[in-house]
Amino acid sequence: MNNRTLTIRVADDLVAAAQGRADRLGISLSLVLRNELHRFANGGDVLISSFQPNANLRRSILTAEKEHAAGELETFDSPKAALAHLKRIRR
Fold first, then answer.
1. Which residues of 32-70 are buried (b: 16+ CB within 10 A; e: fewer)?
2. Statement: residue 1 has pLDDT above 80
C-alpha cells in the first residue's frame, strides 16, 4: 500500500483541542483523520459548519430564489425527465 503525506492548514487552537481529545481517547490524531477520509471516500456525508458560499454560488442562490418566488421553476414527473432536461440545456 502506497502512502501519501497530506498537508493542511488548521488553526492552532483547533489542532490542540483535537489532539487533546485524541490523547484522552488513546488514539493518534492521524488515525482520526485517516478514519474520516476513509468514511468520506466511501460515501459518507461531510458536515461543514463554517461554510461560506462564494460570490458565484450566492448569485445562483439569489437567482433560484427569484425564480421560485415568480413561479418560474420547471418541475419533472420522473428522474428520467429531469436528466433529459439537463442534457438538453447542457448543449
1. eeeeeeeeeeeeeeeeeeeeeeeeeeeeeeeeeeeeeee
2. no
- In three-state secondary structure terms, 9 is coil
**What residues contact residue 29 under an 8 Å CB cut-off, 6+ apart?**
15, 18, 19, 22
Distance CA 45, CA 9 (A): 22
41 close to 35: Cβ distance less than 8 angstroms? no
Per residue in 4-39, pLDDT tens? 999 999 999 999 999 999 999 999 999 999 999 999
Q: Which of 29, 85, 70 is nearest to 62 (CA)?
A: 70
**Residue boundaries of the structural domains of the chain:** 55-90
Q: For the chain, how big is the Rg over CA atoms in Å? A: 21
To the question of pTM greater than 0.70 for the whole model, the response is no
Strands (E), the chain: none
